[in-house]
Amino acid sequence: MKVFTRDYRITGEYHPEWDAYFSGMKPCVLDIEATGLDRSRCKAVLIGLLMRTDSGVRITQFLAENHYEESKVLDAAMDYLEENDAGYLITFNGCAFDVPFINARLDANFMGRELKMYHFDLYRFLRRCTDMKERLESMSQMSIENYYGILSDRGDTITGKESVALFDQYAISGNSTIEKIILTHNREDVLHLNRLMYLALADVPDIHQALARYGFPAAGGRLSVRPKIKSFAKVLRITGEQITDPIAAAYFPDAEEPLTVTFNATSSSFEIVAPLSSHGEDLYMDVSFIDSHLLRTDPDCINGYLILNPRTVNLVSGALAEMYLNK
Fold this sequence. Notes:
The strands form three sheets. Strands 1-4-3-2-5-6 form a six-stranded mixed sheet, with helices on both faces. A six-stranded antiparallel sheet has the order 7-8-9-12-11-10. A four-stranded antiparallel sheet has the order 13-14-16-15, with no helix packed on it. 34% of the residues are buried. Helix 4 packs across helix 9 (207-214) and helix 7 (160-173) packs antiparallel against helix 8. By secondary structure, it is α+β, with helices and mostly antiparallel strands. Helix content is 36%, strand content 28%. It has helices at 19-22, 70-83, 98-108, 122-129, 132-135, 141-147, 160-173, 176-202, 207-214, 293-296, 310-325; strands at residues 2-8, 26-34, 44-53, 56-63, 86-91, 118-121, 216-218, 223-230, 235-242, 249-251, 260-264, 269-275, 277-279, 282-286, 301-302, 305-307. The chain is elongated.
């Protein structure tokens, strides 16, 4: 196995409101190259990872030199994520391909490891939470890069499909030119995905509503939270996934905490239902029982009551989910 690194001077947050949801969590952009799409028999032969540094970002790539070094690549990538304290993953269509592929190959190699952390799949986010699929004929990464005018900046000359055939040649010959072509394709995928995070998220009209629909992290990434107001019933319903260390617990309304809360360890899910009050067209919530400095000092929190809008709905939902997870 070979390891390659390259540094770039790219700084800044993905979106002005991004830190409100991802503060303290280090992002890691991930892309893999495999010998095919069938994760039951094909192998992961190259994993590219991009993480931030003090001066920008660094791309680290783990490349198998033949078809028998898959376990080395997988182990090295998992070690890298742990050693660099990665807080969440960023992929393009990684929910359908990259992450389940890695986990299937970890299992096939009897490695006793699992890639499990909060995962922001830009493809899934744009498809489900924006109108981009109506604007573009194709939702491929290269199509979206072309839409934002950065496709021509790519330094690679092949597709992912062509990379499969090239790796077969590389595994036999070890040709340095083929090696460079494969590495460049993977590196450009990771680098341009990182650029798309800046461009595409800036184009989202209401990032709070979009993240609520997708599911934002809470409790340091242990939870993915999706809130929704049921106006007719005057309740806030918060659902989501327990990503790591799922618990089983249930809480019922009482005089101090008028909420219904269920954490299901078997399904790794949770649900919180909180009553709301209204004044005219405005909805608000009694949050006096929640021990949260962010809530108490929020400009929309007055005398223990939080006026609800897309931003504050997410704020109180994350605080409640974390509070009951840690009870």
